[in-house]
Specification:
Chains A, B: Residues 10-341 form the Enoyl reductase (ER) domain. By secondary structure, chain A is of the alpha/beta class. Chain A is built from eleven helices and 18 strands. In chain A, helix 3 (159-169) packs across helix 4. Chains A and B meet through strand 14, strand 15, helix 8 and strand 16 of A and strand 14, strand 15, helix 9 and strand 16 of B.
Chain lengths: 349, 349
Amino acid sequence: MSTKTYAAFNETDPLAPHTIERRHLHAKDIFIDIEYCGVCHSDIHTAKGDWGKPNYPVVPGHEIIGRVKEVGSEVTKFKVGDLVGVGCMVESCQHCSSCDEGLEQYCENGFTGTYNSKNSKHGGITYGGYSENIVVEEDFVLHVPENIDVKAAAPLLCAGITTWSPLRHWNVKVGDKVGVIGLGGLGHMGVKFAKAMGAHVVMITTSESKGEDAKKLGADEVLISKDATQMKAHANSFDFLLNTIPVKHDVNPYLQLLKLDKTMCMVGAIEPLDAVHGGLLIMKRRNLAGSLIGGIKETQEMLDFCGEHNIVSDVEMIDIQNINTAYERMMKSDVKYRFVIDIKSLKES
Amino acid sequence: MSTKTYAAFNETDPLAPHTIERRHLHAKDIFIDIEYCGVCHSDIHTAKGDWGKPNYPVVPGHEIIGRVKEVGSEVTKFKVGDLVGVGCMVESCQHCSSCDEGLEQYCENGFTGTYNSKNSKHGGITYGGYSENIVVEEDFVLHVPENIDVKAAAPLLCAGITTWSPLRHWNVKVGDKVGVIGLGGLGHMGVKFAKAMGAHVVMITTSESKGEDAKKLGADEVLISKDATQMKAHANSFDFLLNTIPVKHDVNPYLQLLKLDKTMCMVGAIEPLDAVHGGLLIMKRRNLAGSLIGGIKETQEMLDFCGEHNIVSDVEMIDIQNINTAYERMMKSDVKYRFVIDIKSLKES
């Protein structure tokens, strides 16, 4: 089916209108009429070729909310009209030990990304959510609670699960002292989730104003990381640190904040960090770890939790025609905290 | 009591004979007649001031084996004639949460090292095992099984527990694929313990000849870390990595060997490592951790295990008069795998 999208055609030009073909429905496929799509930093990195030359044209978007318009003959989990979401993955091998555990994001044969990935089963390249619609196998589609603000739910599919998964994996619980390092798309969800899990949440940031913003999101306390006296006062006191800084940085000042046996988990910086001091790990048996998005099962658990606790992202709505301006603003960190495209603007264009 | 020792008097001169006073026995104290003392790299670092100017004269030695000669009035765990050991610690606060858990090595108020430490309770500076005798509170004294080769048991008190503790903490079990990185005093004990725990043990080394040596110690397999083809073949396959390399190095080639969710534990390099690649942590939720010696309770468990499995270190015996030559050889890694001083040579000098 002929589908309107916005696509990047090379590294330097802005995104522009484009038409793609969505595949005909297979037995397990769901045809989703997209309503909203969040704008993730990965979209920019991919469109601009920061992570290697992509398969142009790139149709970005992996924070997708929409309604089921049609289902394949063997679909059992969804029906026409359901409010659904699609995140970063649309396929995995579903038979390796990671997939068996519900950890498709760590599929040993590699998952298929929602855009710019080779689709091993159906052929071609995947196209994401800056689009009128999408076809996805039901095992990679999520139920979205109807009671939350739907447009603000889109970023849950990437920024949300990326922070939810490590908070759950490292068993953050009531009363834990949890530090969220950095306040952006990921960090603001980290604060909301950790708070909802009952933790004492500390926003760790270089910026006083971001600290104030974090308090409005639910942070109990602010730690200004460039203030050596404050950092020393919080040494050896944290049960978990969620490090959302998206670029290379010195992790050592943060490591010393952890209690014995506790973990700092990286979710942003997929690049070399500054030299880690072995002594900071050895002297308190600390752990430096990383975590990648989340599995389908835990993404559903997160969405259900968001429904129960009325949690969504803080978003700024845009029309698809303003996507390039949104990219420019994101590169200056000028958004609180996620842009979401109203796909109606694409459909009516 | 006036006690013969060997001590370092400044950063550059060799160790030389010296006389110190051991304290009179307090109620909980044990007077130990030292028979053997292992020679640890920490002894050299401290004697030479590599870790900051020490409190000269330094009497090194924290791998001590001896017999109880006298006990204080309230000692309950030991009697005259018992074969005992003393490791890296002679005191801790014994009331913080770490001490309560039997993790005195992570005492929140700082443990007292066996040598070159301020003795907060009894005053003065601690003097170690290059000595005829030592006085230690019973809570920091270990029972040594009588059935093992006593002189070769000395290195268990530091090199042994330093490798035992992380293997236990990260729950190495029968059938696990465990890599021991580096073959020295620590690495050779790591191989023996991991093998005795039922793991499939892989020696990871740059040196073919060390690989062969590791097989004689029980390693099932050798992985030459500078061979990219071998490293690739072992990618994502290890359940645990024990990294005993004592100096700054690139940990990234090792991290990629770990399976999903698994840990590499540093026990050697108490200094900045080369830049860690965040992606290696994130993409497989891997952990980079560290571990420091071990608590008193687990040190006793290790010694009991060594008694049951007849495990000791591979040692080269020396007289105290040859300690300076031993230091020179250790700095060239010319020992398999630990020097142990026969303290009789000191007593009869």
